[in-house]
Amino acid sequence: MNKKLFTQIKNEWRSNLWLAIELLLVSVVMWYIVDSLYCTTATYLEPRGFDISHTYHIEMGILNDKSPDYVVYQSDDELRRDVIELVDRLQHRPDIEAVSLSNAAYPYNGSNSWNPVQLIGDNQTPINIVRRMVTPDFLRVFRYTGVNGETPEQLAQMVEEGKFLLSESYCKDRNFKPNELIGKPFYLHGDTTQTHILGAVLNSVRYSDYQQGDYCLSFVEKLPRDWMDHTQELCVRVRPEHDKEFRARLMADSESQYRIGNIFISNIYSFKDKRRAYQQEQTNTIRNKVTGMAFLMLNVFLGLLGTFWFRTQQRKCEIALHKAHGATNRMMFTRLLSEGWGILFLVTPLALLIDFNLAYAELNAMRNGTTLEVDRLLLCALISFLLIGLMMTIGISIPARKAMKVEPAEALHNE
Fold first, then answer.
1. What is the 3-state secondary structure (H, E, C) of 287-342?
2. Burial class (CB in 10 A: 0-12, 13-18, 19+), 4
3. Shortest CA distance to 81 belongs to which of 264, 266, 261?
4. Which of 143, 147, 230, 317 has the fewest other C-beta atoms within 10 Å?
5. Nearest Cα to Cα of residue 48 among 158, 132, 129, 169
6. Mean pLDDT of all residues in 360-369
7. How many Cβ atoms from other residues are within 10 Å of residue 19's Cβ?
8. What percent of the chain has pLDDT over 90?
């Protein structure tokens, strides 16, 4: 069977050559599409390093001196005491699990504070990374975790003790293993007069759903009391069973229970809404890209389907002759599929070579800092191969089954 099949492919080399060229081009185009979609999907599905479910950002306002309820503060410390009192009252609210203050720290935040970090004794140049100033409960609000399995509670205790936390992406950037750095002294903020002890290495915290964690270098340290004013970020985690209508309930209580001195709650935002707003432009760009790729893939599928459909339709006479000589429907069906798959197998190594050179030339999507990853190349090539094989099988099967229902004599007569 195989010998006859290859003989037939060889004898019909002109038509099969054009088919092989088409399959080669389709394989390369399909790999490019699959590779792009794979990179987008894999990045989106990466762990984010935080959890925003049931979390809210509470915006604080301050009365001006024209308000009849305005209180004259004798010092800035009085303002800070009012903010801390507001945090304390919220912590005692039954439907709230954790409350935190922070500076340029909460997820999906366009405001960043960059500061140098340097391991003492390391000869490498200090690197500027994102600084997140937080109260300890921030780790509980957004459920940060450590690479060694440290829980949010354990991380919060480390921050309370004055230690700082560093993202795993820093270790990867500087070629350190996390455990090599834990407990070591660092210089922060470019200040070489004071050392800071690293308490734990965090799972990398991403800026957005479309950016890999390896490129999001950051560290977390305790927010000083002198910074605790109404301009800081007040975030809460609500108990899941009390999340429904939380915003409305809190706003209803805000005037009577949560206006302290000149401080009041001006608004409440769900982090799901902040996430949507923060990356709306990126989401639209990705959506347009995926839609374009999907449309291109659909056109490739239809073209491939039509090619094999037409090719099989033109071979009704050949099918009738084989059946007249005793071939069964199953034998003919297997023969037609084997011919198509055989040509696909022959062009696949050449297509893979072209894919490799395109990736080497950095003409495809970037991920993990490179366009050429052997496992990714092979996976996307395999997916492309299977998709092409599926369309080819459909394009052969449907017209072939119809052709096999026609009696040989009738088919030959019509021919």
1. HHHHHHHHHHHHHHHHHHHHHHHHHHHCCHHHHHHHHHCCCCHHHHHHHHHHHHHH
2. exposed
3. 261
4. 317
5. 169
6. 91
7. 20
8. 63
Whether the CB-CB separation of 395 and 304 falls below 8 Å is answered with yes
pTM of the model: 0.84
Task: Please state the separation of Cα 162 from the chain's center in Å.
Answer: 33
Q: What is the mean pLDDT of residues 48-52?
A: 95
Query: Can you give the pLDDT at residue 155?
Result: 97
Tokens for 145?
């975790």
According to DSSP, the residues that pair with 103 across neighbouring strands are 133
Sign of CA pseudo-dihedral 377, 379, 380, 381: positive
**CB-side exposure of 247: number of CA atoms within 13 Å?**
13
What whole-number distance in Å separates Cα of residue 265 and Cα of residue 250?
9
Burial environment of residue 405 by CB neighbours within 10 A (0 to 12, 13 to 18, 19 or more): exposed
> Cα(100)–Cα(395) distance, rounded to whole angstroms?
60
**What is residue 241's DSSP assignment?**
G
Q: How far, in whole angstroms, is CA 170 from its chain's centroid?
A: 19
Find residue 166's DSSP bridge partners. 201, 219
Task: Tell me the C-alpha distance between 166 and 149, whole Å.
Answer: 14
Structure tokens at 216: 């999001």
SS3 214: helix
DSSP letter (8 states) at residue 226: G
What's the pLDDT tens digit per position in 67-110?
Answer: 888 889 888 899 999 999 999 999 999 999 999 999 999 999 88
Q: Are strands 127-134 and 218-222 parallel, antiparallel or unpaired?
A: parallel
Q: Is the pLDDT of residue 405 over 90?
A: no
